[in-house]
Every structure is written in structure tokens, then in C-alpha cells.
Write a structure and sequence with these properties.
Helices cover about 5% and strands about 50% of the residues. The chain is mainly beta. It has a domain of about 240 residues: Porin (Beta Barrel), CATH 2.40.160.10. It has a 16-stranded antiparallel barrel with strand order 2-3-4-5-6-7-8-9-10-11-12-13-14-15-16-17. Strand 15 and strand 16 form a beta hairpin. The longest helix is centred in the N-terminal third of the chain and has 23 residues. The radius of gyration is 31 Å and the shape is globular. About 30% of the residues are buried. It is a multi-pass membrane protein.
Length: about 375
């Protein structure tokens, strides 16, 4: 009987001890799986998947520092570098620009859905910060809407059929940014076309936009293109309100046997001083544009050649002739001609670091010519 009691007591003790251990047990949760950033190679280098989504994001930009100078003294042709902002002032003009760009893309049954935001700030010429949204667009397939370069300058699928000469300044090709809704089809590997409705800042009829059309054809040998722009109201001044239009056509030819080297020739015609023309430095001259304006001439021809001397060094030369500048915002002739010339040197000693120098000469008939230029250091990322 004593042995039986001892066994029962031992069993009870073991059960109690086991229960105590079960009550005090620490449960360690399984670690959550870590989602590493995945490279997205569907849209080129630099894209990655935003964690938890199928959207690809690229972050890019640059920082530059430049030192510039110009010879404008208030009585000369306005210079290309500063448009005559520093008459009779002597000394170096320093400037810094910072830019960050976010590009988000994803595939849909309607084509690629894209959003692009560009933030930018300048210190020195032309301004001193703060950071602002320089551009912002939404794109779905060939449909693009937002604030960016006018189709007169660039469009989807245009390839090399964009902008002006080979230099950063590009000579005079009517650069501007505008609110727009555009539709493009084709690609930069062949034929492409774009139609764009662009903001005219409530001028004229108010609800009527400006209209720009562009066609281009890119191949391994180069490209050809043509564009037309209709400015529904070329002036915010009621007494000068009227419409206007311009056309441009060009060719880009890659030099056989010299990889990276090319020749560009572009022609422009405008029926008045409107938004779609060359936009030359003449707009800053009181003699040519007494009430402001775009700086257009009736017609203009631009030629530019770029040669890639080594894998790290290249240079370009360019010139442009202007026939018969318009009085600002009108179709009235001044009878004045002019021309510009440029030299650009580009050295890329290491990846993503560029040293660039550009020198310009500007001359309007009856005015002395001016010289301007800059030395710039840029770090891209």
C-alpha cells in the first residue's frame, strides 16, 4: 500500500511540473520574410521595383557648377549666355544647378503607365533657389499630359529629331516648357508622329489651345523631321493680340567611319514673332523687341557638326543665320538680320563626370557683336 501511494504521489508531481513548464513556455515567432529591392530591367538601367509593388522607379539627376563671362556693355547685340542681364558689369558669373528626377513606370493592358517629376534649383544665374517642380507629366502609352518641353522641341519617339545644335545651349531653336496634352505613335527606331494641344495662358479666345504637330523618321544613318506650330494668340497685350504660326524641318546625319560624330542642319520659318520660331537672343534687345517677345526672325538656318575625337573627348562647332527679325509680338519687319556662332568642348575623364566649355558669338545687324561662354563641371547620377 505504501509503494502504491508513493507511485501515485510521484506521478502527480510529474504532471504538475509538466503543466508548470507548459504554462511558462516562450513562443518565438517566425521572422517575417525580408523583401530585398529587386532590379527592374524592363525600362533600361537604373530602375528598381518599389517594394511590395510591380512599379519600377528610377532616381537620377545631376549637380553642376559653372563659371561664365560675357562682353555685353548695354549697347551691343545681347549675348547668348545671359541675354544681356549684366550690362557694363565686369567679372565672372558663377552658377550652381541641382536637379533630381523621379521616373515611375509599370506595364498595363493599355501600355506603359508612367509618371515623371523633375525637381530643380539654381543659385546664381538665372536665380537663387528654392527647389521647385521644374516638370511633371503623366503618360499612358502614347498619351502624355502635364508640364514639360513643348512638342516644338521634343516629343515621344522623336529620337535625335529634337532640340537644336549639338551643344548644351543648342543655339536658337525656340526652347520652352508648356502645359500640354499630346498623343504620339511610332518609335525612335522608325517613323513617329505627335499631335499636341498646348496652353496659351488664357490668351485670345481663352478656351482655344495652341496646336503643334511633329513627324520624324529615325534610322541607323540618322533622322529627318518636320514640325508645325500654331500660336492662337501671340500676345497678352490686347492691342497686339493676333495668331501666328511657324514651321521647322531638319536632318541629322551620322558620319560613316567616325562613331559618335554627326552633322545637323535645321531650317525655320515663322510668319510673326510668336511662340513657334527660333527664340533668339534678339528678344532682349530694345531695338528689336521694344515690348518684349520671342525673338523670332522670318526665317533661319542652323548648322552644327560634332566630332568624337576619343572615347572621352568630343567637340562641336555650329552657326545660325537669321533673316529679318520681327518687332516684338508682331508681324512687322525690322529689316535687321543677324547670326550666331558657337564652339563646344566636352571631356568625360571618368564615368558620370563631365567637364564642358562653350563659347558663343552673337551679332545683330547695326549692333556690335558680343562674346560669352562658360566652363562647367557636372556630376551625373
Amino acid at each position: 500500500m505504501a509503494i502504491k501511494s508513493l507511485l501515485l504521489a510521484s506521478a502527480a508531481t510529474l504532471v504538475a511540473a509538466t503543466g508548470a513548464r507548459a504554462a511558462d513556455a516562450i513562443v518565438i515567432p517566425e521572422p517575417e520574410p525580408v523583401e530585398y529591392v529587386r532590379v527592374c530591367d524592363a525600362y533600361g538601367a537604373g530602375y528598381f521595383y518599389i517594394p511590395g509593388t510591380e512599379t519600377c522607379l528610377k532616381i537620377s539627376g545631376y549637380v553642376w557648377y559653372q563659371i561664365a563671362a560675357e562682353s555685353y556693355d548695354g549697347n551691343d547685340s545681347p549675348d547668348f549666355q545671359t541675354y544681356g542681364s549684366y550690362p557694363a558689369d565686369e567679372g565672372f558669373i558663377k552658377g550652381v544647378r541641382t536637379r533630381v528626377e523621379f521616373d515611375a513606370r509599370s506595364d498595363t493592358e493599355w501600355g506603359t503607365l508612367r509618371a515623371n517629376i523633375r525637381l530643380q534649383a539654381d543659385w546664381g544665374t538665372p536665380g537663387d533657389g528654392p527647389v521647385g517642380i521644374d516638370q511633371g507629366i503623366i503618360q499612358l502609352g502614347g498619351l502624355r499630359m502635364g508640364y514639360t518641353e513643348t512638342v516644338w522641341n521634343d516629343s515621344i519617339g522623336a529620337g535625335v529629331a529634337s532640340y537644336g545644335s549639338h551643344s548644351w545651349g543648342g543655339l536658337s531653336y525656340g526652347y520652352q516648357q508648356r502645359h500640354q496634352i499630346s498623343y504620339s505613335f511610332g518609335s525612335d527606331q522608325g517613323f513617329a508622329a505627335t499631335l499636341s494641344l498646348e496652353d496659351d495662358t488664357l490668351g485670345g479666345e481663352g478656351y482655344m489651345p495652341d496646336v503643334v504637330g511633329a513627324v520624324s523618321y529615325n534610322q541607323s544613318w540618322g533622322a529627318i523631321w518636320a514640325k508645325v506650330g500654331y500660336d492662337e494668340d501671340r500676345s497678352a497685350i490686347d492691342s497686339l493680340s493676333d495668331d501666328g504660326w511657324g514651321v521647322t524641318a531638319g536632318v541629322h546625319y551620322n558620319i560613316p567611319g567616325f562613331e559618335g560624330s554627326s552633322l545637323r542642319v535645321i531650317g525655320y520659318y515663322s510668319d510673326s514673332d510668336n511662340a513657334y520660331g527660333v527664340g533668339s537672343p534678339a528678344l532682349a534687345s530694345a531695338l528689336v523687341a521694344p515690348v518684349g517677345g520671342f525673338g523670332n526672325s522670318e526665317w533661319s538656318v542652323l548648322g552644327s557638326y560634332y566630332h568624337q575625337f576619343t572615347p572621352t573627348f568630343g567637340a562641336s562647332v555650329g552657326a545660325q543665320y537669321f533673316s529679318d527679325f520681327y518687332q516684338g509680338l508682331t508681324d512687322d519687319s525690322t529689316g535687321l538680320d543677324g547670326y550666331e556662332a558657337e564652339l563646344a568642348l566636352v571631356w568625360v575623364p571618368i564615368e558620370n563626370f563631365e567637364v564642358r566649355s562653350e563659347v558663343y558669338y552673337d551679332k545683330i545687324e547695326t549692333l556690335d557683336g558680343t562674346v560669352s561662354g562658360f566652363l562647367r563641371f557636372t556630376r551625373f547620377f
